[in-house]
Write a structure and sequence with these properties.
348 residues; 3 domains; 21 strands; TIM Barrel; eight-stranded mixed sheet; three-stranded antiparallel sheet; alpha/beta
Length: 348
């Protein structure tokens, strides 16, 4: 994969066009030919002076990989935690969400392409301390690093996560899992919960259509499940990722790690450069039944039903979910209120 294309090879300027102090990246290696290799993600971009990486936000300036977009937030909002989606983590609560710019993938169906596939969208500068202060005042459970791909803003996320932890806030990551093993271990150690997009189980689909690595995201999931609460999402795209065989392969892989990993099957809707027809709800329900052969908790994502959680022992409703919110009325002290069986839902 080449380090940059015409859209992403930019000068080191802030989103507002002014030169910045340019914080330095932590995962990088100098090369004998004067270039610098980024070692954060599988692209392993080899950057010449003034060249940005494939993600668009990590840049070689004076033989160092610098961060001209450190703290450049494209979005700040208080969201329901179910929106991430996290269904087994503080149901019914909200989380203060921050997004950035850029992405290591080129998904043609990206819902957030205006910020993920650009470094020119409007942003506001925020420090880790200010982000934590705002999150603490918002009344949610903590901070979610989300909307684009937060991994490529590793340094800012890690600086913020450390302060958030000290302030008693939860750290939540929504990611495509395109990160190398060493920084993945460090990042997932700093998180309380993550949702990882496993977009396909086909390495060619990842490589040819997304410019990504299936191996990387699988390894990220393996690392994350040893360190924090993990939920997985697959976007079901007609003709691309909607085969029963593929969903069953994903479910088997997840079950080999932990059969209680919550698995979300989300319906695709046309966006960005993709005009494929929207996913039928019946397809989501059919594939959810396939995944349930191997996993205990499979959810029908962003369609109207199939999103409640029931006790595996007695079948009582633990958490009900709808478009207007979630209610954990069936839980008592982390257990099923009806039969006392331990619940998979994290509430404290």
């Amino acid at each position: 994969m080449k380090a940059s294309d015409s859209k992403w090879s930019r000068s080191a300027s802030s989103p507002n066009g002014a030169e910045t102090g340019l914080a330095e990246a932590r995962y990088a290696a100098s090369l004998p030919d004067g270039r610098v290799r980024c070692t954060l993600c599988p692209h392993a971009c080899r950057l010449k002076e003034g060249e940005a990486g494939f993600c668009g936000v990590r840049l070689n300036r004076h033989a160092k990989i610098t961060l001209p977009f450190y703290g450049a937030a494209s979005a700040l909002a208080l969201d329901p935690i179910e929106k991430k989606p996290l269904y087994h983590y503080f149901p019914g609560r909200q989380v203060y969400s921050v997004g950035f710019l850029g992405c290591p993938l080129r998904c043609p169906f990206c819902q957030n392409y205006r910020i993920s596939q650009s470094t020119t969208a409007a942003t506001q500068r925020i420090s880790p301390a200010e982000l934590v202060r705002q999150a603490a005042g918002a009344g949610g459970v903590g901070i979610a690093y989300t909307y684009n791909e937060p991994v490529i803003h590793f340094e800012f996320v890690m600086d913020s996560a450390e302060l958030a932890h000290k302030a008693g806030l939860q750290n939540v990551l929504v990611t495509s899992g395109q990160i190398n093993e060493e920084p993945a271990k460090e990042m997932f150690d700093a998180m309380h919960a993550v949702n990882i997009d496993l977009k396909s189980f086909d390495a060619r689909f990842y490589r040819n259509e997304l410019a990504g690595s299936l191996t990387a995201v699988k390894r990220s999931i393996e690392i994350a499940v040893q360190r924090c609460h993990v939920e997985i999402t697959t976007l079901v795209i007609p003709g691309k990722t909607d085969s029963a065989a593929e969903i069953e392969s994903i479910a088997r892989f997840l079950a080999s790690l932990n059969a209680e990993i919550p698995y979300h099957l989300s319906a695709y809707y046309p966006a960005y450069r993709s005009v494929t027809r929207a996913t039928e709800p019946a397809t989501i329900h059919r594939l959810a039944d396939v995944a349930r052969k191997h996993l205990h908790y499979v959810y029908s994502g962003n369609i109207a039903d199939g999103n409640s959680t029931r006790c595996r022992r007695c079948g009582a409703l633990l958490v009900s979910r709808s478009r207007t919110g979630a209610r954990a009325a069936g839980l008592r002290n982390g257990n099923c209120a009806a039969c006392g069986h331990p619940s998979p839902i994290i509430t404290a």
